[in-house]
Amino acid sequence: MNLAITIDLFYLSELIRISRAGYGDKLDVIYYPVFENRIYLTPYKRTAFLHLFNFETQGVDKLNFDDWKLENIPQYFIPKLLGESTPFSLLHPPDIGNYFLVYQDSESPKETPNWLDSKYKEALRIQGLLQYLKDEIVHIDYYTVLYQPDWVNTIWRMGTYFFRNIRRESVTPKYTISEEDIPKVQRLWEAYKRNYNKLSKLSSSKLGQAIVRADLHFSNYHSKDRKEEQFIELIIALESLFSPAGTTQELTYRISQYAGIFLSKEEKGYTIYEFIKDMLKKRGSLFHGQYDLAKVEKDQFLLAEEIKRFASYIRCAILGFIILYLRNEWKLEEIQDKLEKALFDSEIRNEIIKKTDLEQFIEETTNN
């Protein structure tokens, strides 16, 4: 089948026309250079494109993550990328952003589905870095592959060709990387790489498992459109980290207390405590089917500002627990015990704040 398509692609009809014109004995001389030029028009490459939903840059010329490049793909090129036959994309709205993580190699196209899957898993590391860098929404919603020369696409990419789902509803504000952010992005990426081996073993401890669960649901939060769905993901992430073991009594108070102390670096712990307690009350009314219908219908049950603030707390909390794990604090119960004591002991509270400081940890990691 591939051979038949290739022959058709290289103008079998033109060969017949030349033969009928009486040049049958000169087919090699006339046609082979055309055939060769089309076959070897450009060196063979395959390129993975992974779309970063809601992402844009400001004053940034270049941003790479080792072999991965961040590229702004022109809107007119998107239909070709997705395999659409229209002059403009009907699948990819322009306001969801045109930035892609791009990876290129020259291996055989035969293993492309498995290769694309592996590249997607690699790119999730970059997605995670971006999600923990800032509060705005960003995630990889779909990915695809494109070959060079162009005729290879006709053989290995039939019709519309992409994996996962294109997210069509835009989000504001945009996740924006500026020139001032670049040093922090690079330092965070370097710190991540230096600790990768340790991070890859997260599931081997109870604390690590709690972090993995929280990270999964925090990442899921970025991919949801409805506020209720976002809220549920954030609640699960919160409870993964702060639910005390072996008890269900006073759960709202305990989780709110632990979170308030753990996140009290730049804001009063009591303010955080009150906010988390309010979110847990809303969780109860939502999960138990007791929410106010009128508020839901008027879009007042969960406010966008509340969701963003809640997500920011979860982001900082997960980062703090990751740092404790990398500092060899591997027992979740011991950390929660310290949080309980920190309510009455300012020295313990200050120790927790110091140990979970991201900037200090990055400085220690990169300097060493």
Report on the architecture of this protein:
The structure is a single chain. This protein has three domains: 2-39, no CATH class; 45-164, no CATH class; 195-367, no CATH class. Helices cover 56% and strands 12% of the residues. The protein is built from 17 helices and eight strands. It has helices spanning 2-9, 12-23, 27-39, 78-82, 112-133, 151-156, 182-194, 196-199, 206-222, 227-242, 251-262, 269-287, 293-297, 304-326, 332-342, 346-355, 358-367; strands spanning 45-53, 55-58, 64-65, 68-72, 99-105, 139-148, 163-164, 175-178. Strands 3-4-5-1-6-7 form a six-stranded antiparallel beta sheet. It has a two-stranded parallel sheet with strand order 2-8. A hairpin with a 2-residue loop joins strand 3 (64-65) and strand 4 (68-72). Helix 7 (182-194) crosses helix 17 and helix 9 packs antiparallel against helix 10. 26% of the residues are buried.
